[in-house]
Amino acid sequence: MIIGGMKEKVVANIERDAVAGNLNAKVEVNDPVFTKTEQKTVIQQYLHQDGTWRYRMNNHVSRRVASLATRYFNRRTTFEGVANLKGITGGAIITSNHFNPLDNTVVRRLVQRTSKKRLYIVSRDTNLEMGGFIGYLMRYYDTIPISDDKEYAGRVFPQLVEKVLTAKQYLLIYPEQEMWFNYRKPRPGKRGAYYYAAKFQVPIISCFVEIVDLPQVDNAEFDQTRYVMHVLKPIYPDPNKSVRDNSRAMMAIDYQQKKAAYEEAYGKSLTYRFEPDDVAGWRGERLPVGVEEGKTV
C-alpha cells in the first residue's frame, strides 16, 4: 500500500531522526501546517457538521466503502493472539505502531473479525483537509481530530473520547504520534492514550503489526508487503493508582510488549541503529525498476 509520492527523502528523514533519537519526529514531507486561525476553522467545521443529516449520510456511505476497502487491503493480512481480546466487553483504547496512511485498516479488519463494535480513530486535524478518497474517509468515517487548539484539546476532545468509551466502542490512538513510512520498529509512545485509558478506567488493547516483505515489485522504490497483526495482552488500569501513575505504568508495559513482539517476529534485538531493512520493502536506488512493473495498491 504505497500512498503518496516518492519516499527517498522520507527514508532519509527516518534515518536522521532514528540516529538522533528523535523517535516521535515528523518525517513526512509537504504535510500541511495550520495557523491558529486555520486550526479553529477546521475544528469548528468538524463540530458543526457532527450529527447533521449530511454527516450521517456521508458517515453511512464512508463506513460501507471503507469496510470493503479494509477487506481488500488486508486480503493477505493474518492475525495472531486474537484470544487476548476475550473478556473485553466494554470500551477500550487500541494502540498500534504507525507506519502507513492506511495502517488503520489492519486494526479495522481485526475489529471486523472479532466484534460488532465500531472503531473510532484519533487523527491530526490537518488530515481533515486531505484530498481524494482518504480525505473523504478522514472527514466522515468515525474520526476524532486532535488539535493544538487549547480550548478544543482541553475541553472538547476529552468529551468526545469519553462519549466513545462510554458507548462501549473502541478508540484507536497512535502513541507514536507521527507516521514513519513502512518503519518496522515500535517506537516509544507519548502518554495521551494511556492517560485517557486511566482517566476513564478502560483497558489498552495492545497491538503490534509485523511487516513481511514479498518477492513482488510494488513501485520504483518498494517491493510489496503483507501484514501480521499481533494482538498482545490487554493492559488494565490499577484502581489503586492515580491517573498519572497508571498512565505511566500502562505506557511502559505497552512499549515492552511491543518491543518483545518485534524481537520475536524479526528474530533480533530492538535497537534504533538504522539499517535499510528497517523500512519494509525499501529498495531505493539499489534495484531500480519501472514504476509500471507489478504495481499494486
Automatic annotation (TrEMBL):
The keyword Electron transport does not apply. GO terms for molecular function: acyltransferase activity. Pfam families: Acyltransferase. Keywords: Acyltransferase, Transferase. Residues 92-212 form the Phospholipid/glycerol acyltransferase domain. The keyword Acyltransferase applies. InterPro entries: Plipid/glycerol_acylTrfase. This is Lysophospholipid acyltransferase family protein.
